[in-house]
Amino acid sequence: MTEAGVKEAAKVPRQREGHLLDAAVRYAEERHWDVCPGTWLEAVEGAERCSCGDAACAFPGGHPAGADWAGRATGSGAAARRMWSRQPKASILLPTGHAFDTIDVPESAGFMALARMERMGLPLGPATHSPDRRIHFFVLPGAAGKVAGLVRKLGWQAEAIDLTARGDGTYVMAPPTRIGGYGTVQWVRRPTAANRWLPDAEELMSPLAYACAREAADARDRPR
What we know:
Elements: H1 3-9, H2 17-30, E1 36-37, E2 41-44, E3 47-50, H3 77-86, E4 92-95, E5 101-106, H4 107-120, E6 127-130, E7 134-139, H5 147-153, E8 164-166, E9 171-173, E10 178-179, E11 183-184, E12 186-189, H6 201-221
Antiparallel strand pairs: 1-4, 2-3, 4-9, 5-7, 5-8, 6-7, 6-12, 10-11
């Protein structure tokens, strides 16, 4: 999918509740991923507001519904069906650190790296594009603890090139979650039987770090 295609897809104005329930159950049953319902969007005085009640919510309908969110995550398809049946509009959180970690990069660097990795024939797992213009590459658990060191070996600092990783205690939003006013979480690479086995972070680090470093250098050179 091209960057333009993702941006067009992100303009979808409605989020079908049945799709959220079906997706959550599918993630649990087919991928054996834990899922957790997050906040959702509500119509308030003709406008969409986050269910958290904060009128200034920075990520409406796209964050945990409470501090105990991790404890409510489930890998059971039946439990997921019950949860989303009770609140069909709830966003889908995928906890990281157990079945997978993610490497998160800016969207422009992510698309550049993805094209290069596909040309190189590297093993790739699923990847999402979020409305905050980040690409999340799914990799084997444990990546969060070693990404900084891997990037440093390549000659960069992870923070300086805007390359991060998510592991224990955090999450990614899963498609088809829609973030009010921003757009919909999309699959850049969908989960399939072919990418059930995830790559190790080290296998992807060189093209990802290179793309991020190039993007960071371009950003510094742009006129202010």
